[in-house]
Write a structure and sequence with these properties.
Blueprint: H1 2-16, H2 24-35, H3 43-56, H4 62-73, H5 80-89, H6 91-100, H7 106-115, H8 118-125, H9 132-139, H10 144-152, H11 160-170, H12 174-181, H13 199-211, H14 228-240, H15 243-254, H16 258-266, H17 271-280, H18 284-294, H19 296-299, H20 302-314, H21 317-328, H22 336-343, H23 362-371
Length: about 375
């Protein structure tokens, strides 16, 4: 078989010069197909292919060159000179080589990962032989395309700090978030990706948060209920049934970015909003009324409503605050800014906008705050 390949290559080489220009790309593909039939070649075959392909590469169009590069990159002994000529042409063909070719020196890969073009860096990010240093360099690049390519590579060895950095960026990049969540079982470092997670992944994140929850030392601010004034504002926003204004009110109460609050409000099934309500200390009965009035999908489904209320009853506030803090990107708990504001003002007396006797009265809230 080896002899047959050499003979056929020799025949093709002898006829190459007599072929018209438009046939040269086809000849390059035929020659490449013949060459990659075997993973290893005799010195004569290598020399003949190197000489012939080296000439044909110069006249090849980008589409042909990309196909040829893809095949040669996966062939262990492709001539280095031919691969360099293809890389020198740039574009998709060069990226195919960067993605696979084992003959490229590590320092070249490092240079591309550090300061190469975005598409070239993406190709390096997709390599199956990435080491920790290259992965770290790529994780630190600002381009989202590089981050997405790195996250999508299941073989990329991401260190803890690199994963945390990518997860923080995934908070604002759903495509990156899905790629990170698709790498396997989520861990606590994936908490910023909660809004992009599937139902089973969300359950896992909540379970992990519960399992690693730490008791607070000293004053337990997480037990301080939301003041009546803020409760009234949230209920009034629910009555208006305008998601945008309700999200703004929620952002003010939580002390987070309004765009993030809107994502929480728009989250399907109300689960993220339930976590937000728990984190700020909103009484459960008020949360239930808000859902029933302003969130039809929750209100019209006994299953969804019951699941949200069950979460409300079972999840400690400090755990909900930890998850919401990761979602919003706050370094402290999602209710920290609210609690500071609450400490500066007296509790608001009276009933909330929709309250008719239910819920925590103002004097009880005042006592709770004073006991905190």
């Amino acid at each position: 078989m080896q002899t047959d390949i050499y003979a056929r290559l020799r025949d093709l080489a002898s006829s190459a010069d007599s072929k018209p220009a438009e046939m040269r790309p086809i000849l390059l593909r035929v020659t490449t197909d013949l060459f990659v039939l075997h993973a290893h070649h005799s010195p004569q075959e290598l020399h003949l292919f190197e000489e012939m392909a080296g000439k044909l590469v110069e006249d090849a169009d980008e589409a042909t060159l990309t196909i040829v590069a893809r095949k040669l990159a996966r062939c262990g002994d492709s001539p280095a000179s031919v691969m360099k000529k293809i890389r020198a042409r740039g574009g998709a063909a060069a990226n195919e080589i960067l993605l696979v070719d084992q003959q490229i020196e590590w320092r070249e890969l490092r240079a591309v990962a550090t300061s190469g073009a975005v598409d070239a860096a993406c190709a390096v990010a997709g390599r199956q032989d990435l080491d920790r240093e290259l992965a770290k360099i790529l994780a630190g690049r600002a381009e989202r395309e590089v981050a997405r390519a790195l996250a999508a590579n299941a073989a990329a060895p991401l260190g803890v700090e690199d994963l945390r950095l990518l997860c923080a960026r995934g908070r604002e990049d759903p495509i990156l978030a899905l790629a990170l969540l698709g790498r396997g079982e989520p861990g606590l470092d994936h908490l910023p990706l909660y809004l992009s997670a599937e139902a089973n992944q969300r359950r896992k994140l909540i379970e992990l948060t519960r399992a690693t929850s730490l008791g607070h030392v000293g004053r337990n601010e997480a037990d301080m209920p939301l003041d009546n004034a803020s409760c009234a504002r949230l209920e009034a926003g629910a009555l208006r049934q305008k998601r945008s204004s309700f999200a703004l009110t929620l952002a003010e109460v939580m002390g987070c970015d309004p765009l993030c609050a809107r994502k929480i409000v728009d989250d399907e099934n109300g689960e993220a909003l339930t976590l937000a309500f728990i984190s700020i200390g909103l009484p459960q009965e008020i949360a239930a009324r808000i859902f029933l009035i302003a969130f039809p999908k929750v209100a019209l489904s006994n299953e969804i409503f019951s699941a949200d209320m069950a979460l409300y009853a079972s999840l400690p506030r400090r755990d909900a605050a930890r998850i919401v803090a990761a979602i919003t990107g706050e370094a402290r708990s999602a209710s920290a800014s609210f609690l500071r504001a609450q400490a500066r003002r007296a509790p608001f007396g009276g009933k909330t906008a929709l309250q008719s006797g239910a819920g925590a009265p103002a004097d009880a809230i005042a006592k709770s705050v004073s006991r905190g």
